[in-house]
Amino acid sequence: MEKKNKDELRQEAVRRLTEEVRLLLRQPESDQLHWRASRLDLMEALYEVFLSQQLLDDEGMPMPFMRLVRKACAVLHLSVPRNPYDCAARGRSRKGFLRQTFMERYQYMLQVRGNKEPLWEEIY
Question: How far apart are CA 82 and CA 90, in angstroms?
Fold first, then answer.
């Protein structure tokens, strides 16, 4: 069996993350779910999903980033950051000095640890 290259592994991670976010957005606010990681991580994850253009709204259009943020924050009982775009950009620009990007950690959890739903590890 041929080993997957880095781009294929990242695409697979984004696809899996998108499915986890899709599941998250379907949860009712009454489930009292909470996010235990940083809001920076959440904004980075949501921005990756937004860039994938795989989540569609009721009209079949890719879901806008701010709609993803508002819905996810409502489900996870978080306040919406003042500038979610800036949060996502800061998360994506981490270079691993003190902490890797969310996507690098997500890929590690998928590929090395074998976790099927790494995003849900951060939700309680």
Answer: 14
